[in-house]
Design goal:
It contains eight helices and five strands. The chain is of the alpha/beta class. It has one domain: Rossmann fold, CATH 3.40.50.
């Protein structure tokens, strides 16, 4: 895992509810890297969303830095993020797992690493379950898979939470 510990620019992608923010937080602590959650860059404290140009500029500013972890799968930033990344982690979890995860998150603990203002709503949960999560496989086929193939030498793909936990455990064990 020494090669992973040398990575300074990490992108984490996956469907809603796959644990991107949780993994980003854990990797940030282990590797001593700053973590940036795309949801926090796009969704504003007042409940609105950022202007697309400003949002893309925020991502570009982060990716021009020497060290970062960015979690999130907004497709319009993936090409540049993948290009800039030393490591790309793809959480390719089942739709059923992700629906369970966002439902549990809605009625349980808050999202790891996100600010207080970022609170999921009933309406947001319904949109995740009915739109974002089911649509993710289409995004994989049309947009993510070609990029993953293009950058395959720096991609790790995890299919289960257990694989992620084992990965994190191996990094912690190497300290």
């Amino acid at each position: 895992m020494e090669t992973i510990k040398n990575k300074q620019k990490i992108s984490i992608i996956g469907p809603s509810g796959s644990g991107k923010s949780t993994l980003a937080k854990a990797l940030g602590e282990i590797l001593d890297l700053p973590v940036h959650h795309i949801d926090c860059l796009y969704h504003l404290p007042n409940g609105g969303t950022d202007d697309e140009r400003q949002y893309i500029d925020k991502i570009a500013k982060i990716t021009s830095q020497e060290k970062w972890i960015i979690d999130g799968t907004y497709s319009r930033t993936l090409g540049n993020r993948f290009l800039q990344s030393d490591l790309i982690i793809f959480l390719d979890f089942s739709q059923e797992f992700c629906v369970q995860s966002v439902t549990k998150r809605q009625f349980g603990s808050s999202r790891v690493g996100l600010p207080e203002y970022y609170v999921a709503t009933e309406q947001g949960l319904e949109r995740l379950v009915s739109h974002h999560i089911p649509r993710f496989q289409e995004m994989v086929k049309n947009h993510i898979a070609p990029l993953v193939n293009q950058y395959k030498d720096k991609v790790l793909i995890f299919k289960t939470r257990e694989e992620v936990d084992e990965f994190i455990g191996s990094l912690k064990g190497g300290n």
